[in-house]
Amino acid sequence: MSWHASVLTLYPDMFPGPLGHSLAGRALSQDIWSLEAVQIRDFAADKHRSVDDTPAGGGAGMVMRVDVLAACVDDVLARRPGLPLLAMTPRGAPLTQAMVRDLAAGQGVSILCGRFEGMDERLFEARPILPVSIGDFVLSGGETAALVLLDACIRLLPGVMGATTSGEEESFESGLLEYPHYTRPQMWEGRTIPEVLRSGDHAKIAAWRKQRAETDTRSRRPDLMERHGDATRQPPSGAR
Ligand code: SAM
């Protein structure tokens, strides 16, 4: 059985979108993964098929109605009982490579996409939904966030990447950023590829890559380095 994604959205035409191309697109046509985009509006009960209403307490914008969302969520939970249900929201837990690995190792995922000012909070209290954010910025809708999450998962499914690239050396897998890459031409605008990468000495290359992963992570993402445990940091003078 293929890995399955159910996306709950007001814009089903946005799927598969970019995931219909390249690695993910090929994998979709090979049934390595499958996709359904569920129209949330189909679960609206009134004659206008309303999915949103004004915010309680006042303020700008509209809020997605809990009764409509719950009806849609219940339908998907009943049809896909084994899949974790995520909701894309800037108020969610940050998406990580570890989370992506877990999801890719499972049977698939259901993803609820928000619009407007977001979803009525009671949905999160009443249903088993994990709120997930793709970063500290605000998008206009959850669909692009869902595409990001799915892209990250799909490339890890068996048979999607070539046998030579397992993704295990990539950024965040070890907790650090990956080392930098180079390819021909050997000389470009007066800049050469680091000598060690042309040495053929695999031990030296591995050591150089490890060191660059550490120095680049330390300068670009000190937060990651902190979490990883900065093994190469000099101990305080009193401890030496
Ligand atoms: N009022 C909300 C807030 O300040 O937290 C933002 C709502 S946003 C305009 C509309 C929808 O886009 C959200 O319900 C969510 O589904 C999606 N979205 C926006 N930013 C996101 C992010 N960083 N991660 C995941 N989803 C996001």
UniProtKB/TrEMBL annotation:
Stored Gene3D superfamilies: 3.40.1280.10, tRNA(m1g37)methyltransferase, domain 2
Stated name of the protein: tRNA (guanine-N(1)-)-methyltransferase
Subcellular location: Cytoplasm
Record bears the keyword Cytoplasm: yes
Compositional bias (Basic and acidic residues): 211-231
Gene Ontology biological-process entries: methylation
The enzyme's E.C. designation: 2.1.1.228
Role according to the record: Specifically methylates guanosine-37 in various tRNAs.
GO molecular function term, any single one: tRNA (guanine(37)-N1)-methyltransferase activity
Principal location: cytoplasm
Alphabetical list of InterPro entries matching this protein: Alpha/beta_knot_MTases, tRNA_m1G_MeTrfase_C_sf, tRNA_m1G_MeTrfase_TrmD, tRNA_m1G_MTases_N, tRNA_MeTrfase_TRMD/TRM10
Catalytic activity: guanosine(37) in tRNA + S-adenosyl-L-methionine = N(1)-methylguanosine(37) in tRNA + S-adenosyl-L-homocysteine + H(+)
Gene field: trmD
